[in-house]
Amino acid sequence: MGCFSCFDGTQKQQRKEEERQASAEARARAAEAAMRREEEFKKSAAGRAAQAQIQQMAKQKANSNTNKGEPVLKWQMS
């Protein structure tokens, strides 16, 4: 059996390469599926609402940066 060890090593390397290729293909398919789901979400009502909310939060943040140093609550004594 010792003389066939080189064949076993070649088969192991071949098997590892096939597993690596299969893994790479699976990752590529998963990435494509994720991109499709993202596109579908962006087209959906929930996706549009989420995008609008993100834009609104960005506007609020931009406005709050312009008022730095000014107190949020103002009061005066009469």
From TrEMBL:
Name the UniProt record assigns to this protein: Small VCP/p97-interacting protein
Composition-biased stretches (Low complexity): 44-62
UniProt biased composition (Basic and acidic residues): 14-43
Keywords assigned: Lipoprotein, Myristate, Palmitate
UniProt keyword annotation of 4Fe-4S present: no
Positions of the UniProt region annotated as Disordered: 1-78
A Pfam cross-reference name: SVIP
